Amino acid sequence: MSSSLPHDFSLSPATPNHSEPQPTATQGANFHMLSYLLGLITSLLLVGGALFLVRQPDPQPIVLHPPPTAAPTALPLPTATLAPITVFISGAVQQPGLYALPADARVGDALTLAGGLIATANAALINQAEKLWDGAQVHVPDSAAPAEQMVAAQPPVGVSGDPAPVSLAGGAMTSGAAGSVNINTATVAELETLPGIGPSKAAAIIANRPYATVDELDKVPGIGFSTIEQLRAMATAP
């Protein structure tokens, strides 16, 4: 019995399907060229960035300056230390006697060392602001003392005695007696030996020099007619 294949199922060689597009050589070349360009651009960017970082200028070095040297402070000129003075306190005080005080002491300082005034002391007759000197005597009157005791032999009321000679700038000596302190040449210390003249007034006297007469001291602030009257016997302005 012979058999035969149907006509529709006969074997025949397969034919290629030409309906789908096939890659061409030109498209492959374009793809490789695009990849090459992207790689080249990437390489150039990397190399350029590295060169920029390498050639970047170094920052300026930080210079630390030492702190400024402080200006030297002017030292005050040395001043001579004056020796203490010794005064005698008498009259209506608690403890009359000799007392040592600083060179710039006043009558009030001496009275304090003497224990102060007694109840019957006539304090109105004592100028406690008056400046003292070595060897001076401070006599305080007693208002309760009998009148017959007030004789010429008693020491004068207040500060008495001759102050020690003081060397003037020109080498002359003054003892603080009448007309001995020249208000045109005396130093602050010498002017302070005058009644009613303290450090501030002495400095003002020097600042307002020169003076033709003692009366011209009225142009000095703080010095009035009463002070000038006290100075007439102890000051001069030749």
Note the main attributes of this structure:
single chain; 238 residues; alpha/beta; Outer membrane lipoprotein wza fold like; DNA polymerase, domain 1; 4-stranded mixed beta sheet; two-stranded antiparallel sheet; 5 helices; 24% helix; disordered N terminus
Mind telling me the C-alpha Rg?
Answer: 57 Å
Structural category: alpha/beta
Specify the helix fraction band.
Answer: 10-25%
SSE order, as H and E? HEEHEEEEEHHHE
Query: Major sheet: order of its strands?
Result: 2-1-3-4
Structure description:
Helix content is 24%, strand content 11%. It is built from five helices and eight strands. 17% of the residues are buried. Among the domains are: 85-160, Outer membrane lipoprotein wza fold like; 166-236, Photosystem II 12 kDa extrinsic protein (DNA polymerase, domain 1), CATH 1.10.150. It has helices spanning 25-54, 107-113, 188-191, 199-207, 225-231, and strands at 85-91, 97-101, 137-140, 158-160, 166-167, 173-174, 181-182, 235-236. Residues 1-5 and 165-179 have low confidence and may be disordered. The strands form three sheets. Strands 2-1-3-4 form a four-stranded mixed beta sheet, with helices on one face. Strands 5-6 form a two-stranded antiparallel sheet. Strands 7-8 form a two-stranded parallel ribbon. The protein has 238 residues and is an alpha/beta fold.
